[in-house]
Amino acid sequence: MAHKLLILACLCFSFAVILTRNIYLTSLLSLLVTTNALLIKTSHNLLDRIKPLLVISLMVIVFQLLFNYSQTVESRLITGLLTAEKIYLLSLTVFLFTALVSLSKLIELLSFLPQQVRLMLTITFSLIPVIISEADKIILVQSSRGHNFRNINLFRSFLPIVIPLLHRSLRRAEQIATVLITRGYPDTNPD
After folding, report:
1. Average of pLDDT values for 90-109?
2. CA dist 160 to 131, 146, 150, 156, 157, Å?
């Protein structure tokens, strides 16, 4: 019962974050969620999760400033900050939720969904830690090859990580699809 209340609270919080237009409220929520995330002991380091979120948030702000010509510069900055905070908040909320609820409990909570949706969510939730582990391995390998990740150019710095990670993820997805087809899972045959 507690897990059902937790998922309901998480969903309500997510909808509230999406619908919020007040930057001060989202800043306060970001501070509260980050504080709660720091207090929870998890197997994954929170800073490792926050770093990519900060990079994505910075990119959202820059893109808003550079490409949104329908608004003034001040409103572009506020829109970029608001959008970046929403992405940060939603991602951190998912991290907290998955840290508090085991995968088996999560699948049990989603038992009202159709079987194919549950399978999709199960595969997605089980692959997230694998992809994070793969990214750590790729970073270690690229560092041993002498790659400098402190480069100012973000694209040049992260391209040696993104390309092998994308390749490994697609290869893993292809293997999962092959397994589903060979086991005769319904509606997986691309006829």
Report:
1. 79
2. 15, 11, 13, 8, 7
CA atoms within 13 A of residue 140's CA, in its CB half-sphere: 6
How does residue 168 score in pLDDT terms, banded at 50, 70 and 90? very high
Tell me the Ramachandran region of residue 113: left when phi exceeds 0, alpha when psi lies from -120 to 50, beta otherwise: beta
Q: What are the angstrom distances between the C-alpha of 138 and each of 128, 129, 175?
A: 15, 14, 20
Which pTM does this prediction carry?
Answer: 0.66
Q: How many CA atoms, within 13 angstroms, populate the side-chain half-sphere of residue 174?
A: 6
Higher pLDDT, 78 or 158: 78
| Contact partners, residue 30, CB within 8 Å, separation at least 6 | 85, 88, 89, 92
CA distance linking residue 182 with residue 178, whole number of Å: 6
**Cα-based angle 164, 180, 99 (whole degrees, multiple of 5):** 60
Burial level of 74, CB count in 10 A (0-12/13-18/19+)? exposed
